[in-house]
Amino acid sequence: MLPELFALEDVSLEVEGGRLLLDRLDEHLHAGAVTAICGPSGSGKSTLLRLLNRLSEPTSGRVLFHGDDVRGLDVRELRRRAVLVPQRAVALTDDVRSEVRAARRELSDDDVDELLQRVALVPGLVVGREPSSLSGGELQRLCLARALAVGPEALLLDEPTSALDPRAADAVDAVIRALVADGLSVVLVSHDVARAESVATDVRVLHAGRVTARGPAGAIDLAHEMSTTPDDGHMHGPDDPRAHGDLHRGHRHPPHDGMPDPTAFDHG
Q: How many CA atoms lie within 13 A of 39 on its CB side?
């Protein structure tokens, strides 16, 4: 059993007008794994991710990091230990090495080159260039190197491959797998069923701010869970026959001409 990284205890987040973005979540996310948070647009995926390092605050309940309430931790230290990489890769400087050093200026050239190699960038091909000259996939990996420079325990990735072509997305996925194999933990938001299944260890599916399915990747029919909403509003685990394809009779399909395409959802 992998150790616990994050826990959400009866977590809700309500916004003006009484709308619940997250509704009484009780979840345990494990260290040394890739946990994919999936769901349709507006389901609360990115909101959940931002709670983990206090970029957002719950209205009620607690978020724990290694068993400690995040509200009792120094927020800057928390954000170094659990770094959020946003959906759109944005460079902060005009030089590749400076980009990696953005949060740790004391890094040597050798340190920077080692971080570039960790994210499958060849120093001899990218050092000296402006980040704006890199391809989308290269820039996303450079942002991962920048995040790794502070020595985090976990990366929080918001749709890390959504803006990339398939080849670049494959390269980013390979880097994520390699980082986890080296002992890092990853929590990522994804609306892409195939991507989530290819890289995740565990999955959580959100609908309207509630977890409706959870389990090991491969044990959940993720495409079906993404494109349907439980009639009973309850979570269906991998041992529940309703979580598997045609046996999932407790779900209703949203209005659509034919079966919904689970990869067609927007981000949210």
A: 29
